[in-house]
Amino acid sequence: MTQRIQNALTIDVEDYFQVAALAEAVDYDDWASMEYRVEANTDRILSLFDEAGVKGTFFTLGWVAERSPEMVKRIAAAGHEVASHGYSHQLIYNQTPDVFREETIRSKKILEDIVQAPVTGYRAASYSITNESRWALDILAEQGFTWDSSIFPVHHDRYGMPGTPRWPHRLTTDKGYELAEFPLSTLKFPGYNLPIAGGGYFRLFPYWFSRMGLGSINRQGKPFVFYLHPWEVDPEQPRLDVKWFSRFRHYNNLDVCEQRLATLLSDFRFTTMSKVLENEGVLDRSLNTLGSDSVAGIA
What we know:
With about 300 residues, the chain is an alpha/beta fold. The protein contains ten helices and eleven strands.
């Protein structure tokens, strides 16, 4: 069963200094002066995916795309899906709707101008579409996005919408729009969902545990979504002076992450986010609109 299910392979294309956990050490205004490493790290991931014969979805930050349009073209030319990760990687619930709308329009246009194709998928910085900022879903739909992967059905200090569906589904926004949603994958325990979708969890947990948890999702007949960042395969990145917990979150096991990723690519089947949503019947990609399946709304 697990080898027949295609899972969503996703990369959030941002640089190490843009991560929310390091914001205490790097101000947005300082980004342009930081050592720029995202291109080389993204190319490492592209080579790894090519060797494994897999395609994925690259949620690309508008700020990065402006500086690296040729990298975005390489992503698209290799057959991967390009989606939006917003423009400035700011937490949405710290933005006003007007600022979020402007950044959403700006980043979408940057990416579409580069790849010369519609960009219809979105993932929020640090999964910051929460109950406090669910208004962002209406703005995404108004700007032509048809699917999203921003909602983490967990309790967390920085993100999370506990109690929301764990599987790909159709949601209805507050204004009545519909979006296909692929929540970040979790393991369900009594009264608690454990994040298992990738990123820092993939580096923190031993590989056997990640494989077991992700495999259990496939054994239930469901696809999982896996995510990683280019900086997570870069153990040589500069070390920034941050508090111990942020330091642990960001730098833990960077030296083993690339090899773990290579192993994961051989242990499971992967494809793009849009393809998985289409397989699940919640997205009609051929029409670039949502299909006619039943709606699962967010409570």
